[in-house]
Amino acid sequence: MCAIAGVILYEYTRDDVQLSNIRSQLCHIVNAAGDRGRDSFGWSALTKHDVVSRKWTTGEKRVLEDFEVTEDTRIVICNRRAEPTTEFVPLKMDTDVQPFTDGHWFVSHNGTIANDRELSELFALKRDTRIDSAVLPGLFSKAGFEKGLREIIGSFALAGFKNERRIPQLYLACNYKPLWIAHDDCNKCIFFASLPEYLDETWWKPQGTRRLKLTEIPPYSMVRINSLGGIVYESLKPERVTKKVLVVCSGGLDSGTLATKYVKEGHKVELLHFTYGCRAEEREVVAVKAVAEALKVDVRFVDLGLLFRTLAPSKLTDPHGTSNRTSGGEAGAEFAHEWVPARNLVFMAIVTAIAEGNGFDTIALGANLEESGAYPDNEALWRRRLAAVVEVSTNVNVHIQVEAPFENLMKHEIVKLAIELKAPLEHMWSCYEGDSVQCGTCGPDQLRRMGFKMSGVIDPIEYEWLPEGFWDGCVTVEEYRNEKGV
Q1: How many Å is the Cα radius of gyration of the chain?
Q2: Domain count within the chain
Q3: CA 295 to CA 265: how far, in whole Å?
Q4: Do 124 and 208 share a structural domain?
Q5: Catalytic residues
Q6: pLDDT (tens digit per residue) in 325-363
Q7: At which of 187, 209, 235 does a domain end?
Q8: What is the C-alpha separation between 32 and 27, in angstroms, rounded?
Q9: CB-based burial of residue 65 (10 Å sphere; 0-12 exposed, 13-18 middle, 19+ buried)?
Q10: Do 291 and 432 lie in a common domain?
Q11: Residue 10: CB partners within 8 Å, gap ≥ 6?
């Protein structure tokens, strides 16, 4: 485990001030990275004349005076190492300190190569240290960079370059280990480091107006940056055509339509329903079973009633409570009066475990734009940040996408889509209450019936209350489908 850092300089004529700036910034980054690695330090630098210089030391040391950044420097890669117990070397030599090289590739690595012995045998690799990272230069020489990455079992964020008579090129890659880059347009270079705080520019601000543009390298990605300023990103994730989708399904309009969409697209679909003590629980269970049967898919159930009824109660799980029905449900549609504390966040932790344990590559949520006005966990930002957490919460090379295809759709748009997909609308249950028919005046009911009204279609389910003449001028679902030819 380590911190890696470095810089690639564009082909550009710099003055002494700019070179001093780059040198100072690089030293600042490496010094800051000492909090993640204090057992050894090393750096390798490539010049435009294909000359590689190297320095190393063991133990803690500030390295501000050690860098030589000249007008010929093109790439510098550094390593601050935290020595794992499985790779303890009592008396370190220069061959035990990163960056490692086979004479062709130079590589700095953060992480653990669990199959280093197997790679050594498979590719006939030689190394002069027991440290696992030392297999990487030889691996890349024999297998190539991308193929070599795919051979690794373990974790990595790494930086490397080849000593060859071509345009200098910096190679960066990571799986779940963090890696960030910072564009310095003022001094015509790009820095990289394990953590964004190492690239913090506050140290510079009293001396000028320079700005660094920070970018995280996405998990399971590789990046090639050449000294002419070209940058190429590539994903290390496998491509999928048919998905195995776990749809979180309440039995309501959004999730029921979502499940239909994935089925009609030819994906392998399964529903997951949580019982958590809401008043409509029995009705939701009946609905989700009916939706599953209509779509000919399986459904799993998870009971969280104890948690949400006793430890994180709400108006929705109060058996003696009632939903906000003010103004025919408009109040409930505009604000989360029935908010259940962190419900969807708790759900997602469990959904992720089930998805990983059962080989699902996609988790699908019915979050939508309409309800994001009242519910933060329906906003696209929530899903995106959650997807980023899921990416680094599963095992190595387990890639689970979190999708919410309706996150930019309003309710009436979902209604039209449901009708066109021939979703089992008559079986879905949206109401917060658990009576024999949907009340028509809670927030979800108001959204559903108005979604149908705005679409000019009569909802096929029955409501306890509707404004007089509510469906005047509307057509039936079948009439709408016939008119649209679907």
Answers
A1: 29
A2: 2
A3: 12
A4: yes
A5: 2
A6: 665 555 545 456 778 899 999 999 999 999 999 999 999
A7: 235
A8: 8
A9: exposed
A10: yes
A11: 188, 189, 227, 228, 229
